[in-house]
Design goal:
The chain has 337 residues and is an alpha/beta fold. It has 15 helices and eleven strands. The protein is 47% helix and 19% strand. The two termini are 41 Å apart. 37% of the residues are buried.
Length: 337
Amino acid sequence: MSLVTEADEISDIAFAFMGSKALFTALELNLFSLMADGPQTAAALGAATGLHEDRVETLLTALAGMGLVSVRDGRYANSPGAESFLVKGAKYDFGDYLKLQVGQQMYPLMDQIGGALADTLDEDATDSYAKWFSDAEQARLYSQSQHAGSLGPARQLARALDLSGARHMLDVGGGTGAFAITLCKANPDLHATIVEFPNVAALGREYVEKAGLTDRITYLEGDGRDTAWPEDQDVVLMSYLFSGVPGEAHEGLIAGAFRHLRPGGRFLLHDFVVDADRSGPKLAALWQLQHTAFTPEARSLDTGWLTGALTGAGFENVTIRTMIPEMTMLAEGTKPA
């Protein structure tokens, strides 16, 4: 990424929050879905949403300025990206993830970033996933949206990995089971155990039952850092776990994965990871900062440290590759046979 040299580039960064809120508001109003059948006037969209035409037109103009919609002869239409990713029911729709988790939960938590970095959060602040998910409603809202957001990477992982010989997988911090469900569907002989907080596990069991996999996917309730894991696993998966726990827990989690794998077993770590020189990618770095807002002791991962940590723990054939472009990476290591 080129370095910032102009004032307008700084302005784009400073005012980016306005664009975020415009997107979240449009999702809350269902605007993209209302335009799925073709171009609409501001008056028609105002009538459909119960808002004044002028207010809707102001929002649509902002969306057009960002390229999310087009406008011609006073009629607004979805951009190709909005049509593919923000219309309800579209194959790759992740609008609920953006609206619910990012817009309603993650966005407000960024107000804590100053206190988190300075270690001055008050006692009522959200400062860990454990505290956050002790609230059943917050756990449900986060988990429902995260499930939708994880299905894409889970399908990508299922296509990229040959797990035909695997029988037992441990998914630490596996949420509502998006990865476990997807991988078990792709590998009929695979059984999975998910370690997760009770309120998340309760919702996860609903997803597992709906998928018809209650005989192959079970939950072990607790904090993955101190709950006893089952032994002799063929695969240990940790997705989005390292970014949400204190950095001092990383080496222990890697060592635990090594101990609980059978010889020849595979460790998979999927998370926000930046390059070894820490110059980016931008989205991965921003997500690491976001997690610090409510996990002050979190530590950002880079490819250099991660390669050394896996190798130092005894893993062989260590590789790191991109999963979600510019955002997440997949690290993999094998326990010696």
